Amino acid sequence: MTFNFNQGLTIAQIITFTVTAITSVPLFSSYLRGVDTINPIFTHHLPVWFGFAFILIAIIKISIRKKLILNQLGLKDAWGNLNGKNEPAIEVSNLTKSFGRIIAVNGMSFTVSKGEIFGFLGPNGAGKTTTIRMLTGILAPDKGSIKIDGINLAKDPIRAKMVIGVIPEAGNVYGDLTAKQNLALTGRYYGLSKGHIAKRTEEILTALGLYERGDDFVRTFSKGMKQRVSIACAIIHEPKILFLDEPTEGLDVQSRRLIVDTIQRMNKLGCTVFLTTHNIEEANRLCEKVCIINKGKIAAIDSPEKLKSTFEKTQTIEISFNQRIDKEALSNEVIFGVESMGDKLRLHTDNPDKAVKYLVALAQEHGVEIVSLVTCGPSLEEAFLRLTGGGE
Ligand SMILES: Nc1ncnc2c1ncn2[C@@H]1O[C@H](COP(=O)(O)OP(=O)(O)OP(=O)(O)O)[C@@H](O)[C@H]1O
Ligand SMILES: [Mg+2]
To answer: Of 95, 96, 99, which is best to mutate to test ligand 1, by the most ligand atoms within 8 angstroms of its C-beta?
Structure first.
């Protein structure tokens, strides 16, 4: 449900005038006549009742203003998104796409709620980019339906594309234009006025740490800077839904932080985020819900915490010794899947008590010292590996 501001104001005014009329007119007339026709408490405290009516007017007006402010920030409808957290932003049903004999996406169905950060995880070749390309109207599905903010993408692609912003896997900025020109071009594509484009350009380039370089050609930018320009273009029109295909892949910590901050800021303002990433820790920190896909199919879809608890039985132990120990020697009936991690070893176990006792005995037997030992609960990475067969 979406109210526009004028409609909201009219409703507010009607409520205000009605309340004022109901409370004050009979009271005022009885006050003039000096008769306590209703209740003495009303006539004796008439100024209080007027005050009450004015406070009510102020509260209603401020709440309308607040919604207008959110609306002007661009990412919330005057009322719709504030109340629409559980309404679907993206609805996908039986989505299928093949390239020759390869079935890249195989009958996927899922829903992303408004205001959610939805993580789309899967190993290389799982079908993430193919799915995003279909959801953003770049690639036509063989089968299935897609609704974006309630709009059928196949029937009304232009209207659906107007409410989304896309950061594709390969980037989509023009090297022969400056950062500001890229933003101006994208802004005009979405029908924004020159003044609005100038305001948004300054805001966004400043937030992304690129304002100083705004007049330089994008071809002279580093990979991380190009990616930030790509994000700037995707959000210039304040989209309701943002699609990002591995936005932080291969970037340094600072660029990654700027991008993650931008995603979170957009989301706080009501933007729904559909994010594919290889960075499982990032998905764990950012996403309310994650969908793990494998070979074109959904393997699991849930909140990170619920997915982790599915694999509750398995715990990991990170251990380092002052000398090298053969990985094979560490495996026993309660320890499985020994991996090297820099100077540490990560072991998987379903019985941490027995496993730790075994490791201590083993260290004594080999005459080596344990430098560090940490037991960790189930991780999203563990869930990911189990669901996608990578942990077997
Ligand atoms: N245009 C295309 N022509 C032929 N095959 C394609 C095409 N695009 C994708 N595929 C195939 O579809 C499958 C899914 O590819 P997709 O790019 O969607 O994977 P992904 O999950 O994004 O992987 P990555 O993590 O490597 O980006 C792969 O087997 C890929 O080879
Ligand atoms: Mg991809």
So the answer is: 99
